[in-house]
Amino acid sequence: MSTLTDQMFILLRSSLNQRPADLTPLSEEDWKKLFWLARQHGIVTIINDAIELLPDHLKPQGDIALSWTLSAERTRYHYAHQKQVLQQIDAKAQAEGLPYVLLKGMSLARFYPRPDSRPCGDIDILFPRNFERGNALLGFPEAKAKGKHSEMEIDGVTIENHRQLLDLNYDSQRRAEAYIMQSLRNVPEDHFLPPMTNMVYLLMHTVSHLTARNKLPLRNVIDWGMFLRANRETLNPDECITTLKSIGMVHAFSLFTQLASEYTDTDLSKFIKERVSAKDVKRMNDLIVTQSFLKPVPKDMPFIPRIIARLKRRSQRRWMFPYLPASFKERLKVKLVN
C-alpha cells in the first residue's frame, strides 16, 4: 500500500475505535489526495470523525478542511432526512399491521460509533411475504420488481422494496435465501434481521459484489467487521461455521473476517476456524484498496478474440473461485461471464 493509503487506514481505525490517530503530519496536497481517496472509498465522513480527534497542528487547514467538513455535513443531513422518511414508513406499517425488516445501510449504521457517519445511499426494506402490499403501503401499488426489488422515490429518498434478498443464480444463494426467509416467519419487533440471519445475508451480499461485478467496495468489508464486532458475544462461531457449511460459504467467511479484523482493528480471531491463504488475503486486499477491477469483455469484439479474452479473464479470477457462491459444476454450466 502507498503511504497515503496507510494514513487513510490509520484514520479509519481511529474513527471506528474513537481514539486519537498516531498520524504523520500531512501537507496540504496530501490532505487533498487523501480526501479524494476517502471519497473514492465512500468513507469521507468516517475519516472526518478521526480528523476531529486530532490536535490542531495535525488537522487539515484552509479550503481542504472545509471540503472535509462540508462533505461530512452533507452525509449527516442526508442520513437525518432518510430517518424522517423511514419514520413515515414505520408509522404507516404500524397502522396497517404490516411487518417489515430494514436492510443494509440503514440497519448497519447502528454498529458505527456515529451512525450518521456511515453514508446510506437509499433505504432497503423487506416486507416478508408481502411484496405487493409493501409497494402499496409505500404509495406505489403498480411498482414492478426489477431484479431483486422495486424502486421508488419518497420525498427525494430512493426506496428499494425487496421481493428477494439475493441473486438466485446458484444453489448456495438459493439455500441462503431459503434460510433467511425461514428465519423471518416471525418478523422481529425491532425491524432488524436476527444476528445469525444477518450474518448469512451480509456475507452473501458482500460476496455478490465479486460474483456479479468482480469488485468489492472497502465499505462493505468495514460493515462486515463492525457487524461482527457488535455481535461478538451473541454469535456462536461454531454455529456460524455449521450454518455456512450448509450453504457452502465457509471460505469466504474466513477470508472477509480476517480482512475486516485488520481494517477495523478488531480481534475477530474467534470466528476464523480455518487457515486462510496469505496470498489470497493479499490479493483480495489489493483488489479492494486499489480498486483494480477486471473490466468486462466488450460484446462487440470479433468472436475468436472475444472467446480468448473471456478465457484470459476467467484465468485471472480463478483465485477468487473458492470464495464465490458458484460450484465448479455450476461454473461449467454458466456462460463465461461478462
What does this molecule look like?
The protein has 338 residues and is mainly alpha-helical. It contains 14 helices and 4 strands. The chain has a domain at 165-338. The chain has a 4-stranded mixed β-sheet with strand order 1-2-4-3. α2 packs parallel to α4, α3 packs across α4 (62-96) and α8 runs antiparallel to α9 (218-230). The protein is globular. The two termini are 29 Å apart.
Helix and strand run: HHHHEHEHEEHHHHHHHH
Number of strands: 4
How far is the first residue's CA from the last residue's CA?
Answer: 29 Å
What spatial form do the alpha-carbon principal axes imply? globular
Rg for CA atoms: 21 Å
Structural class: mainly alpha
For the sheet with most strands, the description reads: 4 strands, mixed
Q: Strand percentage, roughly?
A: 5-15%
- Order of adjacent strands in the largest pleated sheet: 1-2-4-3
Number of helices: 14
Low-confidence stretches: none
Mean pLDDT: 92
Percentage of residues assigned to helices: 55-70%
Task: Give the helix/strand layout.
Blueprint: H1 3-17, H2 28-40, H3 44-51, H4 62-96, E1 101-103, H5 104-108, E2 123-126, H6 131-137, E3 149-154, E4 157-162, H7 171-183, H8 195-213, H9 218-230, H10 237-247, H11 250-264, H12 278-290, H13 303-316, H14 328-333
Parallel strand pairs: 2-4
Antiparallel strand pairs: 1-2, 3-4
What features would you highlight for this structure?
globular; mainly alpha; 4 strands
Offer a quick outline of the entry.
The protein is mostly helical. It has helices at 3-17, 28-40, 44-51, 62-96, 104-108, 131-137, 171-183, 195-213, 218-230, 237-247, 250-264, 278-290, 303-316, 328-333, and strands at 101-103, 123-126, 149-154, 157-162. α1 (3-17) packs across α2 (28-40).
